[in-house]
Design brief:
CATH topology: Maf protein
Mean pLDDT: 93
Distance between the termini: 12 Å
Number of helices: 5
Order of helices and strands: EHEHEHEEEHH
Largest sheet: 6 strands, mixed
Low-confidence stretches: none
Strand order of the largest sheet: 2-1-3-4-5-6
Shape: globular
Length: 195
C-alpha cells in the first residue's frame, strides 16, 4: 500500500515537479486534491521559517501530516533579492513573466550575474515534530529569457556547469540537481528511514 503525503502547495507546477521526484511507494496529493482554497500566510523573511509556518498552518487545520516548501532566487548584484519575495516580486498577481522582466530591468548595466536558487522543505507529523531539509543550486542570470520549460525564473537561470537555462533543460535533467530536488532527496532519505 502506498503512503500518501500531502504537499501544502497551491502551485500545480511545484506539485507536478515534486510528484516526479517521489520514489515508488509514495502518493503525493496537493491542496487542490483536498479542496483547500484558503491562502497560506508566508510572514517570515527566511525560507525555513516560511516553510515551517505553512506546514504548521495546514496541519493545525487538517490534522494531516504534510510538508511545505519555500524557495526563491537570490541575485548577488541585487543584494539577495528577490529572495523570499520571488513569487510576488513584481506584485501580488504572482506573474512569472512580470517577475522576470523586473529582475532583468534591475540587472541592466550590472556585470555580476551570479545567483542561486534556495529551497527549504518542512515536514510535520505532529504538533511538536517538524523536520527541515534544504537545497541550493548556484548559477547565473541571462540577459533574456530562453526556453519554455520549467516555471518561475527558470528561463533566465543557467545552473553552474551548464550553458542552458532551466527553461531549456529537460525536466529529467533539472530534477536531478535543482534546489528543490536536493532538498527533496534529503526529505526522501528521511522518509525511507522513518517509514
Amino acid at each position: 500500500m502506498k503512503a500518501e503525503i500531502l504537499f501544502a502547495s497551491h502551485n500545480s507546477h511545484k506539485v507536478d515537479e515534486v510528484r516526479k521526484l517521489l520514489p515508488d511507494g509514495f502518493t503525493l496529493i496537493g491542496l487542490r486534491d483536498i479542496n483547500w482554497t484558503e491562502e497560506i500566510p508566508e510572514p517570515f523573511f527566511s525560507y525555513e521559517e516560511n516553510a515551517k509556518a505553512k506546514a504548521y498552518f495546514i496541519y493545525d487545520r487538517t490534522g494531516i501530516s504534510c510538508f511545505a516548501d519555500d524557495s526563491g532566487l537570490e541575485i548577488d548584484a541585487l543584494e539577495g533579492r528577490p529572495g523570499v519575495f520571488s513569487a510576488r516580486y513584481a506584485g501580488p498577481q504572482r506573474n512569472h513573466s512580470d517577475n522576470i522582466q523586473k529582475v532583468l530591468m534591475e540587472l541592466q548595466g550590472k556585470e555580476n550575474r551570479q545567483a542561486r536558487f534556495q529551497s527549504a522543505i518542512a515536514y510535520i507529523t505532529s504538533q511538536n515534530k517538524i523536520e527541515v531539509f534544504k537545497g541550493t543550486v548556484e548559477g547565473t542570470i541571462t540577459h533574456a529569457p530562453k526556453g519554455n520549460g520549467g516555471f518561475g525564473y527558470d528561463p533566465v537561470f543557467i545552473p553552474s556547469g551548464f550553458d542552458q537555462t532551466f527553461g531549456e533543460l529537460s525536466d529529467t535533467i533539472k530534477n536531478s540537481f535543482s534546489h528543490r530536488a536536493k532538498a527533496m532527496q534529503k526529505f526522501i532519505e528521511y522518509l525511507r528511514v522513518t517509514k
